[in-house]
Design goal:
With about 140 residues, this protein is α/β, with parallel strands linked by helices. Helix 2 crosses helix 5. The protein is built from six helices and four strands, in the order H-E-H-E-H-E-H-E-H-H. Bound molecules: FE2/S2 (inorganic) cluster. FE2/S2 (inorganic) cluster (FES) binds next to helix 4.
């Protein structure tokens, strides 16, 4: 039991990546070199604006400890204003998470272009560390 306390918690992360910017950025970073040993599952979407609250909640229900939404920088969305919708929507979903007893910091929105492979690695690593410090979501829900 003493050892169980020191076991590093490896959070499960689902990352919704916009095809046009962030997925390409992840690709350039080398998907295989995502922060290890954390378990990051990339899901490609056509635009961050297509990531619905239902998709985010489903990701948590399916066992994710954290959900990352990465899209094109404002002004660079392939569909012009898709990410304007994302920037309004994600704070609402964060509020919703708070209401159902999930720490809103388990959901993060950020922007990564295809040319920003190092930024992709940095944002992902930061988020993994944030979620690791929050602990397993199952424990949070049980509180
Ligand atoms: Fe990337 Fe819309 S196409 S955020």
């Amino acid at each position: 039991e003493v050892f169980a306390m020191t076991d590093a918690f490896e959070p499960k992360i689902i990352a919704f990546l916009c095809n046009w910017c962030s997925y390409a950025g992840a690709d350039n970073a080398g998907i295989a070199r995502l922060p290890s040993p954390a378990n990051v599952l990339p899901i490609r979407v056509m635009c961050s604006g297509r990531v619905s609250p239902e998709m985010i909640l489903r990701a948590f229900r399916s066992g994710a400890d954290g959900v990352l939404v990465l899209g094109c920088h404002i002004g660079d969305c392939h569909y012009i204003s898709g990410n304007h919708r994302t920037i309004k929507r994600v704070p609402l979903v964060r509020n919703l998470l708070g209401y159902v007893g999930i720490n809103p910091d388990r959901l993060r929105l950020d922007w990564v272009s295809s040319a920003e492979a190092p930024r992709f690695a940095q944002v992902t690593q930061e988020f993994v560390e944030t979620v690791r410090s929050l602990g397993p979501i199952a424990e949070e829900m049980a509180r």
